[in-house]
Amino acid sequence: MHDTKENSFYEKLKLDGYCLIKNFFSKDEIDDLRFFVQKNRDKNKDIYLSIIETKKGKCLLSKRYFDLLKRTLGENLVYYLDSDLLVDTDKKTIGSFHIDTRNDDEDPGTSDYKVWRVGIYLQDHKNYSGGIKIILSSHKKLLLSSFKKFFNILIKILKYKKKYSFKSFLPSFNFVNVPSEAGDIIIWNGRTHHSGRFQRLKVFKNFVLHPFFERLFPKFFFIEDKERFVIFQNWCIAHNSSKNYIEYRFSEAKSSSYWKNNKSDFNNFPMNEFINSSIKVKGMNK
Ligand SMILES: [Fe+2]
Hints:
alpha+beta; six-stranded mixed sheet; globular; binds fe (ii) ion
């Protein structure tokens, strides 16, 4: 039994909406994971199916990795084969603030969201650009970064009689360029406001800008990106919020071939490792 209450990552995730786990993977594991990402970047299926196929990236199947997730997220973990690989050249644009929730109409100020994104950035973003920017404790806030988003919330309140607490409307401006390095793991809540591919200033390199100014300022203001290899996974705890999330993902038109590939390859899924760590695997038998 893992006691999440005594785990500082659990506390940090609950309080700040994200946590940075330092130096989890060894140098050999980092090299192996980078090779794994490069080799499988075009495979449109869950990473564990590619891990079995290529025998690379096996540290993500280790009890040590699963135990860390359980200590940080909770005991009743569920995996829906929802993951992604990213290589630098796949997407070059500076992101804008968004959240990863789907089908979530609850008040973030008073309810929990039980879907998290695990990001394994396999290079230095402490000294270079290209990492993830988050807004501290924003998982308790509504994202009202555009007129459209504000309008959508207004519709939910007026038409669907949804209720949101006053504090969920109070914005936070505490931006963090997460200083991750190769070997680290970043976990953030689906509701945490975040933006991809931050730009690190050459002067005052720890000063964090809003993505709007990162897009506005000339390139030479910023330190260049490192070649960017990232592994993303979605992990859930059995809960209404994760049920709604995954129902949306399963029915998303643009992901239909991803789920089809997962289903047809499901016999190769390393179920034993998940069972041995008491992690439920769901969704593929539908
Ligand atoms: Fe995101």
